[in-house]
Amino acid sequence: MIIKGINILNFKNIAEASLEFSDNVNCFVGMNGMGKSNFLDAIYYLSYGKSFSNMPDRMSVNHEAQFAMLQGEYERRGERLDIYCAIQRGKRKVLKRDGKEYQRLSEHIGLLPLVMVSPLDWELLRGGSEERRRFIDSIISQNNKEYLAALIRYNKALEQRNSMLRDGVSDALLFESVEMAMCVAASLIHDTRSKWIKEFTPIFHNLYTAIAGDGESVTLEYESALNGGTMAQILDANRQRDAVLGYTSQGVHRDDIELRLGDFSMRKIGSQGQCKTYTVALRLAQYDFLCAISQHKPLLLLDDIFDKLDAARVQRIVSIVSRDRFGQIFITDTNRQHIDEIITHMGGDHKIFEVANGVATPLIQ
Length: 365
What we know:
Layout: E1 2-11, E2 14-20, E3 25-29, H1 36-48, E4 67-76, E5 79-88, E6 94-97, E7 100-101, E8 114-117, H2 122-126, H3 129-141, H4 145-166, H5 172-212, E9 218-223, H6 231-237, H7 239-245, E10 256-261, E11 264-265, H8 266-269, H9 272-294, E12 299-303, H10 311-321, E13 329-333, H11 336-346, E14 350-356, E15 359-362
Parallel strand pairs: 3-13, 3-14, 8-12, 12-13
Antiparallel strand pairs: 1-2, 1-4, 4-5, 5-6, 6-7, 9-10, 10-11, 14-15
Helix pairs in contact: 4-5, 5-9
């Protein structure tokens, strides 16, 4: 799958842009703060219907404008697709495929598989458990509509239960009806996440080793209250506590992944280089996983990934992303040397854009 071109209007600091892309490698080079990452985020937005940073939609609209527009032209298994997104302050976001508006954003998820490696991935290590759950959910949901539907049902029921707890509702039958929906959805979510961890971990370990070299062992451990019981048992055990707290204290909405380096937590002992290697390996493993189950080569967006890495690790990453298993790639960097190294390794067609103050100018090769 490839994106042939994109039209942008009033998106962050990009007032207006119309770019045509190489089917192979596309690079954005320029100083920090000029808007390189915003071009990648515009592409991300068309795949997921939201910003990579998870900021509110209104924050993606240029502060001097009332609306923003994104339009991308794609080629997917020989089929041409036109994806349009309009964001207007104070109104509902509009997302269309070939001129037809989606009624639910979930209908679009998975159509245009994409993986983005970004400095914001630091939050996978340092942030709260919601960051790591979002990581799991975004991968599984792209090719498992049943899982996505279960997540939506669970979160809706969770919101209802929390509202009842806050309001002091004591109707047992009402709680039973809401909790039944939670329990059915939670069972599917937990089973799917457990299976995913087992399949994903060896892919991740191999990529981490390929970047870091031998001598460092990494693992992922799934932490969930459902590892030791059913959702129904967990709700019953915490019923009085939840009533006092006013919210549901345990369940799959509290799941986490323990990211380990050897026998220790990576977030506690990892150096900057090790942490960066860990997050890059997680994202590249995400790419391999999605590619295997979807039979599509996702778009790969590499946003300033070489910072905080030594020369040896940079060289290994360049070697990995230069392999044939990757499809269309987008790269941002302040260092033109990194860009030239990747282009040299990959060969073939490419485009380089110089970015200054939200304007991307194609460089003549």
